[in-house]
């Protein structure tokens, strides 16, 4: 009896449509993604199981850490309008004039850590240079020598929030390094409490629950 020949069918698949979909998705994610801004003061936050998310607006972050063996305090404001208003407050208080270009550059900075006298020099730098190690020495927090600029920035941010029609009080978050000594964190807490800010967040890193 003769053998029956099985007809061979082509196994090739037209991938044109799949490639088109892949490129469309890739283009979408590239256009909608937000590039991560380098942190001028990287910190390793302590671990916690709490999953409370910080607000995207109306938030001020105070970062406490060390750089080159020295304590550093950085100040960040989420809203550009509040940044601009806080800068105007500081300029008026310390009698420093900023150009329109400098004000525009400052409104683009998420976080900074220099005394007001060094802010012009910082704004003249490229964004990549600002994030270099040792460039920003931190904001003064000296409550004894009458050079507590952190307190003034907090006042300026709160004032700017009110002037911009903020219906809610600014929220504050302290982002401290897990290895940072307690006195430095306590100093920042005292500055907040001196201005009747008794409710604030402590930023932590998420870890798994212990069983």
How would you describe this structure in keywords?
211 residues; alpha/beta; two-stranded parallel sheet; 7 helices; 36% helix
Structure description:
By secondary structure, the protein is of the alpha/beta class. Helix content is 36%, strand content 15%. It has seven helices and seven strands, in the order αβββααβαααβαββ. It has a five-stranded mixed β-sheet. The chain has a two-stranded parallel sheet with strand order 1-7. Helix 2 packs across helix 3 and helix 2 (80-94) packs across helix 6 (149-163). The radius of gyration is 25 Å and the shape is elongated. The mean pLDDT is 82.
* pLDDT < 50 runs, ≥5 residues: none
- Per the principal axes of the C-alpha atoms, what is the gross shape? elongated
Mean pLDDT: 82
Helix content: 25-40%
Q: Could you tell me the radius of gyration in angstroms?
A: 25 Å
Tally of separate helices: 7
Structural class assignment: alpha/beta
- The SSE string, one letter per element, is HEEEHHEHHHEHEE
The strand count comes to 7
The share of residues in extended strands comes to: 5-15%
Strand order of the largest sheet: 4-3-2-5-6
What is the rounded distance between the termini? Answer: 71 Å
Instruction: Tell me the major beta sheet.
Output: 5 strands, mixed
